[in-house]
Amino acid sequence: MHSNTWDTWDAWDTWDTVARLARRFNAHDDERGLDPVQQWTLQVLKIAEETGEASQAVIGVRGTNPRKGDSHTWQDVHAEVADVIITGLVALARMRPDDAAPYLRRQLAAKAAKFLPPPSPAQVSPLA
């Protein structure tokens, strides 16, 4: 049994929650008559929107917009970056509902291999 709030986040699996969000947004867009490609397109645009909000927050922290001044905090930036990540995870889950998590794992490994030395045997998890 879980509480009706998200205060007990550790009780929720991240990818399970992402998949539930993806299904919720798919159902909403299905009701609006959008086909999968239209849904994916709008979800990717949503990533761009969230990225813009993160950028706006950084500008607000730095106070570089003379009209707005110091309008944000680094905590605001952190929250906006989290929104970008969540929106990206949901987009991937909407486009790849059957394998989003392993696909991301493979993509992360490929990208990391370009920048990081291979892990030592002691660093490799037997569960990976």
User: Helix content range of the residues, please?
Assistant: 55-70%
Largest beta-sheet details: none
List how many beta strands DSSP finds: 0
Structural class: mainly alpha
Radius of gyration: 18 Å
Strand content: under 5%
Order of H and E elements:
HHHH
Low-confidence stretches: none
N- to C-terminal distance: 29 Å
Total helices: the number is 4
Mean residue pLDDT: 90
Shape field? flat
Multimeric state: single chain
Give a brief description.
The protein is mainly α and 128 residues long. 65% of the residues lie in helices and 0% in strands.
What characteristics describe this protein?
mainly alpha; 128 residues; flat; single chain; 0% strand; 4 helices
Task: Tell me about this structure.
The protein is mainly α. 65% of the residues lie in helices and 0% in strands. The protein has helices at residues 14-31, 36-62, 74-95, 100-115. Helix 1 crosses helix 3 (74-95) and helix 2 runs antiparallel to helix 3. The longest helix has 27 residues, at 36-62.
Reconstruct the topology from this structure.
Elements lengths: L13 H18 L4 H27 L11 H22 L4 H16 L13
Helix pairs in contact: 1-3, 2-3
